[in-house]
Specification:
The chain has 471 residues and is of the alpha/beta class. It is 42% helix and 10% strand. The strands form 2 sheets. An 8-stranded mixed β-sheet has the order 1-2-4-3-5-6-7-8, with helices on both faces. A two-stranded antiparallel sheet has the order 9-10. The longest helix is centred in the middle third of the chain and has 26 residues, at 260-285. It is globular, with a radius of gyration of 22 Å.
Length: 471
Amino acid sequence: MDPFTVLFDVAAVSSSGVFGGVAAAFGIHEISNQIAAMVVGIVPVTRGESVVGGLSSPYGSGAGILAYGGPQPSDVALASIYSAPSDPALLFRLSGSKTLDRLTVLSVSEVAAFVAGNPAAVSRLLVSPPRASSVAAWWAAIPSSAQKKLATAAPVVVGNLDGVPVAVRDRANRLTLTQAVTQLQASIDSGAGRAKLIEKRHHLNILTQVAKTLKHSSGEPDRQLLTLDPSGEVRAAIVVGNLATADYVSYLVPGMFFTVQGQMYDWTVIAQDLQVQHSEWLATLAGTDSTLAGKTAATVAWIGYQTPGALDIASLDRAESGANLLGHAIQGIRATRAESPPFVSLITHSYGSTAAMMELANGGMTVDALAIVGSPGSAVQSASDLAVKDGNVFVGEAAWDPVVNTAFYGSDPGVSAFGAHRMDVAAATDPITRQSLAAAVGHLGYFDIGTTAMRNFALIGLNQSALVSSR
């Protein structure tokens, strides 16, 4: 059977309301956007290209860069390059760790020139970075003057390196965002061919959404720009709260059809709703458990990978890429918070659950708790195969969700044989607060305010598995 028929009849889904209360913010218009993009012939920029200064590079043309699949230098040649850093153009031939080492000893102008002239090398470093523990050790070892130089001259690199302190990454990514928006707007204002203008405006709209999302009202939790890869359709992650000090950290990992342009703002609003619930529950539970007094929580709206669209929904390629990038993200907080490790949970939805389970089964990361909702399944056969501590694996399935029970990518985590805790997402009364809770309905209804699902997400993220309502 056609994979699109298995998962979605778009026309039927869009008219039935099965996506739930947040459908207007998420699903249907994104499908329409992708179809419209295909009609007008907008071709997404490939990784290695970036967004400023023309879509081939936000920082320059990058002409003359050795193709990834081309001839690779010998070990002797690499040794020669490594010992002679005076030619920044050769840096792209080095491994990620060696590239970082050599960037450290270059001047500000040389670093800036390398980043501007080698977008493919920068992209390679971002999608295949060194281990976060190695990055953390490298960053701690270099002098503060070198740290400031790199953050200023190569913000797109520093801002996206898991293992660099969160505050440094936030400042660097905000600088990248400002530079990218300024240069794109200037390029648009200067005039260009119709096709180029469409592309530039498209990318400016994406980055404008990121800038909009970073704003918050007085009294709301702070927001930090943890990730900003401006190439292609853009990858981003925004923190609500203080990731550097929070005792509990929940990553929200989305699935199919999610993009930075279409959903970054709303995904961050949901992350804030969850962070507020975390804080409220901590205050409530501290009344009977003094160890929770003064504890804090942060959430991460993570769109750190390119989710599948209508044309590649049947493939696991995006899941494999997302799994790797998510693994690096979790390694990053483990590395930067080694002396005060937080409780880390993943709240995964749809295809995002497939990616997360893939990495947890491969040993690329370990988390303290995992929530799976709206899942199309994965190759993982049992919750015990996942690197999740103390068996804290929870699964929820909403009424009228067309994706659950399909086992489209393998095993269904919702069946009892999988071994996950069955999390309640139906209408209920909270046994502690006596609040009436709504049911999750449809594929995206899990994230509506006031639902049983959101209540349980909050408790899962606070290591309160005994209080999570089951079905």
